[in-house]
Design goal:
With 225 residues, the chain is an alpha+beta fold. The chain has two domains: 32 residues; 154 residues, Immunoglobulin-like. The chain has two helices and twelve strands; from the N terminus they run H-E-E-E-E-E-E-E-H-E-E-E-E-E. Strands 3, 4, 5, 8, 9, 10 and 12 form a seven-stranded antiparallel beta sheet that branches. A hairpin with a 2-residue loop joins strand 8 and strand 9. The longest helix is centred in the first third of the chain and has 35 residues. The relative contact order is 0.16. It is a single-pass membrane protein. It comes from Solanum lycopersicum. One of its GO terms (biological process) is defense response to other organism. It is found in: Membrane.
């Protein structure tokens, strides 16, 4: 083998690769945006934690108290007068009721701070009465005796007057009594703020004639918190 004179030229050596750094991209973070993101994340976690705590407290209270709705009934009604004059649009009435309020709760008492009973006929109020305030204990039944007697202006349209004539012929009237209340709940030594439930009682009551009264069916009222 003959010796080679001069330099030996082998494969060419590639030039070193250059790295480019583009400003404004990559993992760099604007301080303001990072701070805002961390703040939002912290607020979200705090709110989420508060909701969980409130949910647990509500569940524990429900399991301990086991609250049940208070039940209202019209147990008896006596109607001795219910005359409507189309001449002066006046209703003459004499209605006495027995109503019961049943508190089925074992650990919740109720303060009835105010009770207003309203007599309604075909959507028109013909009388109202304020009843005495009282306290109702646990698993207790209280009785109310609202009485509506007198006369009042009631404006009835032609359709309502026709309904009245039909009920007068039958001797049975559809009457509604509403109870507007302000109550407070007592749980142990804690008393809640005032609550304003509304109770609606729709019932049919026969008119007494010659000292005889018809059969009245006990009616359960509707409670709206």
């Amino acid at each position: 083998m003959s010796n080679l004179n001069g330099a030996y030229y082998g494969p060419s050596i590639p030039p070193p690769s250059k790295s480019y750094h583009r400003h404004g991209r990559g993992s760099s973070c604007n301080p303001c945006s990072c701070l805002f993101g961390c703040l939002c994340n912290c607020i979200f976690r705090v709110i989420f934690t508060i909701l969980i705590v409130l949910g647990v407290i509500a569940l524990v209270l429900w399991l301990v108290l086991r609250p049940n709705k208070v039940k209202f009934y019209v147990t008896d009604a006596t109607l001795t007068q219910f005359d409507y004059s189309t001449t002066n649009n006046t209703l003459y009435y004499d209605l006495a009721l027995n109503m019961t309020i049943r508190n089925p709760n074992k650990r919740i008492g109720i303060y009835y701070d105010s009770i207003e009973a309203r007599g309604m006929y075909q959507g028109q109020r013909f009388a109202s009465q304020n009843l005495e305030r009282f306290y109702q204990g646990h698993k207790n039944t209280s009785i109310l005796h609202p009485v509506f007697k007198g006369q009042g202006l009631v404006l009835l349209g032609d359709r309502e007057k026709s309904n009245y004539s039909n009920e007068k012929n039958l001797g049975v009237y559809e009457i509604e009594v509403k109870l507007n209340m302000r109550i407070r709940l007592k749980i142990g030594w804690i008393k809640t703020h005032k609550i304003k439930p509304k109770i609606e009682c729709d019932f049919k009551v026969p008119l007494e004639s010659n000292g005889r009264s018809g059969n009245f069916e006990e009616t359960r009222c509707h409670l709206d918190w």
